[in-house]
Amino acid sequence: MSLSTLTSSEAAARSALLEVQRYDIAVDMVGLLEGDVWSSVSTITFTCSEPGATTFVDVAMDIARATLNGEEVDVSGAADGRLPLPALAADNVLVVEASTTNTSTGEGILRTVDPTDKLVYVWTSLEPDEARRVWACFDQPDLKAPHRFEVTAPSSWLVTSNGAPESVVDADPGAALDARVWTFPDTPRLSTYVVVVNAGPFHEVRQQHDGHDLGFYCRQSLASILERDLDELVTLTRQGLAFFGEQFGFPFPQERYDQVFVPNLGGAMENWGCVTYGDGQLFRTPPTHAQRAVRAEFVFHEMAHMWFGDLVTMQWWDDLWLNEAFASWAANWGMASASEFSDQWATFLAASKRTAYEMDMSPARHPIRSEVLDVSSAMSNFDAITYVKGQSVLHQLVAYIGEAAFVAGLRDYFGRYAYTNTTLDDLMACYSRASGRDLSEWTRSWLDEAGTDVLSLDGDELVVETTDGQAPRPHRLDIAVFDASGDELVSVARSSHEVSGTRTPVDLPAGDLRLVNAGDLTFAAVKPDPTSLRLMLERVQQFPDPLDRALVGATAGQLLLLGDAAPRDVAAGLTRALATETSPALIEPFLAHALQVSDRWAPASESPALLRGLADVAVTLVDVPDARQAALRTLAASASTEAHWSVLEDAAARATDLDLAWRMAVRRSELGDYDEDGVRRLLESDPDPDAGMRRLAVLAAHPTREAKEEVWQAFFVDYAVPASRETLVLGSTFWRPGQAELLAPFTHRYLEELHTLKGGLLNQGLTIRAMYPLGAGDADFLAAAEQAADDTSLMAYARNQLRANSFVLGRILQARAL
């Protein structure tokens, strides 16, 4: 079914015409137990400000019948996901009966069969305009209304929605299958994209804490893993609800708060009171510190959306950043302030911020806020600029006006606009009132202009270089000065500066090393002076603050993108830092960054030695309790000598899980040793319902065409790769830089496959990013990819990802020549 995309002008016209009083939606899931049929009856009560006017309702389903105010509506005119409505009265009741069998692609809904026990699970995820695929509605964010659900589901299933069920009763005993009817109360006034219905024979755990009824759900085959991590998930949930409720001056207004881990969801979704996560967040192996931090960030991010996105919602998709950037910033803020992950800002800088610099320095750069003409264009902005740069800019705003004013502005915002829709101007007006500052120029330069400022020191002046001749942005930043004359770095001074214009005088004391943007308060690349750069890389381990050490690693990454550093020097600096690093917040990000530079950025003549050096350092970290698991994983990816393999084999023999054995099999396969019998034994002994993906990773690494073809088939023909963060790992395993000649034909096939991708946005986005041949593509592919980025037959998201990744690939190819 071809679907129209709602334009901003159409949305504005419909919003001016209609006000929705409520949705009463009956869903029938019985047909999903053994088939693919989802049915719904949507009753929409609404008013029209111009009686006699006409409009359309969104419904991308097979429509059986529709009535408006008791009169039959001709459904033969439905097309492109829209049902035209006849002349409206002042008060209207529209009833649409519809069904769909499109339940296997993840477009709004996904029916999944667990391969281990054949149990069926169903989830919905409706952003941005996928609600129309499951029931009739006016599918735009500014037509909020209460939703009431009545769900008929097989009797063996549990159903979750946005609140606690009012009743659960047996269905008509004359039905073909045993079923129960779940009735849920009215939601608050919500946008159509943040309501939800999930169902299946879930494992459920409920706990009462702090006035909230907390629920946790997963498929039965993962019950033991959820139980393993339950205490941590409960603690994070309690910490987040308490912290945000206090800071926002608006406690979460509902007792029920559910978190549902579902199969094959590429990310998470902030449904009001019922968050869904891809169940890859239930790590099959006891998670490392970094994995726990990532999951905590998911918990805090989706929870922040309860206020910023659900309670107060953007009027239109041009303010998408109001949702995503704020939730990302609030997640890190909340974790650093209220959880055990107190060094989260250092982790964010070391592990995530680089992705925003990569995109913002590339031809894919775009303003954080931009005009969005239609919904399909909006989704092209679900990227690192929206999420990562956006939260970095908010972090700069906190520094610019002060945290007290920032929090006061938020309290004003939620108090004024609860359950309504807003624009960016509404938010910035709250910050201006709280801070007493005119923020119009700050808003324009930071949110309406693309590109990354580059900072450097020229004597006693701080110099700002800009993109495309733009005026420099205002920056509030710190500069730290260190004395390096002795065996240790000694802090001389740390000063704060408000920077405006191309050159700003800064009064700094004498010192050997000057660290610009200490504390990482602003979003900018930094070019250190030659002496500071040399000392930073040689003595990174001597900075006492983890955030400063993270800044050194981040600056080195920026210099790679700017073409001002060689991979060998960056890898050596990171390896040197790892030799003495003690912060769990940095060990894994540094290991990952060092591995990426040594493996993907370095030329083929230097990569083996850099990997061997990294593996040597990983061996020294194996005996550090907080680093052991991450060190072994890095060692498994870089093992180069018999001594390395000896350490791995000893650790694998003592391990209680199979994770390390799988990783060793991947590395051996990459080196040409594919042990089919060994892989079969691992597969037979692994209880993970997605263990087949581990076998696929071993194949992905193997340097034969047959192995690569099987993985390709799984990605692009069978769509058999479950969507999770591991999808990205599988992609990087496939594109081994040392196999460039073998992979050359696949690089061009990737560009062809972009025209035929299936599934919902989250899952398509994962495949696009995972399977770009970063590090394996050559100059011919790069030229073809840059040309494909201008192909308007590709969706905008794919074109933007091509531009961003091609920029990085181009920098990699240049860096290998340094």
UniProtKB/TrEMBL annotation:
<dbReference type="InterPro" id="IPR042097">
    <property type="entry name" value="Aminopeptidase_N-like_N_sf"/>
</dbReference>
<protein>
    <recommendedName>
        <fullName>Aminopeptidase N</fullName>
        <ecNumber>3.4.11.2</ecNumber>
    </recommendedName>
</protein>
<dbReference type="Pfam" id="PF11838">
    <property type="entry name" value="ERAP1_C"/>
</dbReference>
<dbReference type="InterPro" id="IPR024571">
    <property type="entry name" value="ERAP1-like_C_dom"/>
</dbReference>
<keyword id="KW-0482">Metalloprotease</keyword>
<keyword id="KW-0645">Protease</keyword>
<keyword id="KW-0378">Hydrolase</keyword>
<dbReference type="GO" id="GO:0016285">
    <property type="term" value="F:alanyl aminopeptidase activity"/>
</dbReference>
<dbReference type="InterPro" id="IPR012778">
    <property type="entry name" value="Pept_M1_aminopeptidase"/>
</dbReference>
<dbReference type="InterPro" id="IPR045357">
    <property type="entry name" value="Aminopeptidase_N-like_N"/>
</dbReference>
<comment type="similarity">
    <text>Belongs to the peptidase M1 family.</text>
</comment>
<dbReference type="InterPro" id="IPR027268">
    <property type="entry name" value="Peptidase_M4/M1_CTD_sf"/>
</dbReference>
<keyword id="KW-0031">Aminopeptidase</keyword>
<feature type="domain" description="Peptidase M1 membrane alanine aminopeptidase">
    <location>
        <begin position="237"/>
        <end position="446"/>
    </location>
</feature>
<feature type="domain" description="Aminopeptidase N-like N-terminal">
    <location>
        <begin position="117"/>
        <end position="194"/>
    </location>
</feature>
<dbReference type="Pfam" id="PF01433">
    <property type="entry name" value="Peptidase_M1"/>
</dbReference>
<dbReference type="InterPro" id="IPR014782">
    <property type="entry name" value="Peptidase_M1_dom"/>
</dbReference>
<keyword id="KW-0479">Metal-binding</keyword>
<keyword id="KW-0862">Zinc</keyword>
<dbReference type="Pfam" id="PF17900">
    <property type="entry name" value="Peptidase_M1_N"/>
</dbReference>
<feature type="domain" description="ERAP1-like C-terminal">
    <location>
        <begin position="515"/>
        <end position="799"/>
    </location>
</feature>
<dbReference type="InterPro" id="IPR001930">
    <property type="entry name" value="Peptidase_M1"/>
</dbReference>
<dbReference type="InterPro" id="IPR050344">
    <property type="entry name" value="Peptidase_M1_aminopeptidases"/>
</dbReference>
